[in-house]
Amino acid sequence: MTPVPVDVLIRRVDPQVPIPGYAHPGDAGADLVTTEAAELAPGERAVLPTGVSIALPEGYAAFVHPRSGLAARCGVAMVNAPGTIDAGYRGEIKVIVVNLDPRESVRFERYDRVAQMVVQQVEKVRFQEVAELPGSARAEGGFGSTGGHAAVGGTTGGNGYASVGSDREGR
Ligand SMILES: O=c1ccn([C@H]2C[C@H](O)[C@@H](COP(=O)(O)OP(=O)(O)OP(=O)(O)O)O2)c(=O)[nH]1
Ligand SMILES: [Mg+2]
Predict the structure, then answer these.
(1) Which helix (H) or strand (E) element contains residue 164?
(2) Which of 97, 95, 63, 94 has the alpha carbon at shortest distance from 77?
(3) What's the rounded Cα separation, in Å, for the pair 46 and 107?
(4) Which of 14, 74, 140, 164 has the least C-beta neighbours within 10 A?
(5) Could you give the ipTM of this predicted complex?
(6) How far is the CA of 35 from the centre of ligand 1 (A)?
(7) Per residue in 90-141, pLDDT tens?
């Protein structure tokens, strides 16, 4: 059964900007465009305006995620991914992009789609301070404690994991 969509109030800061839309019925993210053209040199970042502000219902937040196609084709990432849009935020939604390609500039034209916004329900919690936390299987293991991380300098010894800084061929 198709879930009933949640109404979200939206105001166009730019009168011509398209209302964010889902490209396909099952998509999680509604695409956001930039209302300003921009050219980013390798390593350069920019804060791009999207031309829209929203009023989310209490108990919701929107998360601005990068677009995978832009990342794969052009090396464009979002510095703060995912950007968090608070329910109380009424300002224009902005996207903080960075060009991670080491050689090529990337150019955005006005109304190019630059990011996608996922609206989600979020829990509000009360932090209850205790002297000791309950035990768990993971306990304090973190940051690679289960293995499977890349080896800097590319000496993984063929354990099937990614290597960084080395060509895997010829080893
Ligand atoms: O990619 C983003 C991230 C945030 N925002 C807006 C909405 C959000 O509600 C507000 C604040 O964002 P955040 O809390 O991430 O930034 P902060 O540096 O903690 O700012 P503040 O002190 O205003 O909370 O900025 C955007 O427009 N785009
Ligand atoms: Mg904040």
Answers:
(1) strand 163-164
(2) 97
(3) 11
(4) 140
(5) 0.99
(6) 19
(7) 999 999 999 999 999 999 999 999 999 999 999 999 999 999 999 999 999 9
Q: How many CB atoms lie within 10 A of CB 56?
A: 19
2-11, 48-57, 70-79, 106-115: range with lowest mean pLDDT? 2-11
Token pair for 51: 């031309």
User: What's the mean pLDDT when you consider all of the chain?
Assistant: 92
Joined together, the tokens standing for residue 125 give 């919690």
Ligand nearest to C-alpha 88: 1
- What domains are there in the chain, each with its CATH number? 9-121 (2.70.40.10)
Please tell me the distance between residue 25's alpha carbon and the centre of ligand 2 in angstroms.
Answer: 31
Q: Whose CA is nearest to atom 12 of ligand 1?
A: 84
